[in-house]
Design a protein that fits this description.
alpha/beta, Cytidine Deaminase, domain 2, Rossmann fold, single chain
Amino acid sequence: MTQSAGNALISVFDKNGIVEFAQGLAKQNWHIYASGGTAQKLRDAGVDVTDIADLVGGEAILGHRVVTLSREVYAGILADKTKAEDMDELKRLNIPTIDLVCVDMYPLEEEIAKSGATVHDVIERTDIGGPTLLRAAAKGRRIVLSAGDQREDVLAWLNAGKPDEADFLEQLAARAEYEVTRYTLTLAQYLNPTEVRGVVAMLDAKTKYGENPQQAEAGFYADNRVAVDPLGLDQFEHVQGMQRSYINMTDIDRLLQMITHVAAGFERNFGKVPSIAIGVKHGNACGAGVGATLVEAVQKMLEGDTRAIFGGVVMINGPIDKDVADTLMHYAMDGETSRLLDGVIGSSVTDEALEALSRNKLRVVVNPALANVDASSLNVAPVIRQVRGGLLSQPNYTFVADLSADYMQFHGDVTDQQKQDMILGWAIGSTSNSNTITLVKDGQVIGNGVGQQDRVGAGQLALTRTTTNFPAIKNDGDNVTVSITLDKKKLAGAVAYSDSFFPFSDGPELLASAGITAILTSSGSVADETVIAALTKANVSIAMLPDSVGRGFFGH
């Protein structure tokens, strides 16, 4: 008589592939115990199986709520096989050891996601036996399978003679504890979304390193199974180029905030999403453009700040074809030199474009969902940020400025083009690190003054970004004078966006003196009337939305 390889307990809700797994175990002489529905499925397929009821001394009770919760099952899982006294006790009680546990849990997350699901529905789908079996098997260092994608690997490992057994079992135990943690956190947050907040995720992709080379143990973690976000970073494919870095991933995340806000703003205000191109450096836009074609949008994006885009990452809302690739590499460049970029992201990429981009070894990343970004693409998941000692959580940035809304106030006339420029400025400025002043002209961001401690400083920085000339420095001994020559032609007729109100008139007066002809800002300052009067005197039109409604602070 062939000696049994051990006893396996199988109890799964999702029975896809379970027959093949059980057959694989049977070929290796495992004795299989299974719960009612799983046992029947295996018997129908010709697998020799013992119903778990024969081990626990009775059928499932309480409407199938209690099946595997018995001391016989858990004694067989938790007994220490290295201790003679444990084995003697099991023998005296006629309880077999259970050496392998294959369990999944009721689909709680799917139930929560259902439209109209009630607390009662969720409670009925809340698994007790599954999580308990998995935790017991993890603690008992049994062969524990908590996910369907582990079955082939476990069968192969058993066939290979259980190499590196301790390490392998530890990894299985870690996955089981993870699955239970994810399950229980999902339920806790459903029951009390205000008081409970957390994130659990598995390594999805390693990154080259962190923000700096010494931060080597960096990676991207994700676990999206239900209602998968098509624009989640785990849905992007790395097609070509160097391994993505930590900064690349944060840049993609910021680009997604920006491109979806541009799309939402144009759809809400003008009924159509244009071609969009945005370039970022270290998480803030250094160029953005909208146009009738992607090539036009890319050209505007590049012209906005030809110096800052050096080494940047670019995202477009469409395919990367050869024309787009050639524009990225050569437009507004002197001589035969190709532009140095760190990455380009689009909905797809052609072979010809890959060839053009491969010469610079830049990263190419694609996601088909980028071709259809609109107002529905805004990220609605809560923003969670780790801080020392805990987490900060807030709703995501889903406000979309609507220039036709009742909350808007206008002082002076605003043209259709200025309205489009205001929306582009709002979308870029409200997704850049505040304080921010963003300058736009004819569908092109020409200056983005981000992350400043005061609004005048943000305006000054935005203005200096409109020129690629190096500042002139004069040292007369006691004083050093730094002067920057602004391009009046480039600034004439431009629009400015401010991510919050102006506390004094000095900031908007600075912008007006440089040639800005319209400003979108918020109201709520004690100096609102002074600001309005100063800008009206300077023939600058103003669009204002209440700070409490549409303040655009981001990225603190």
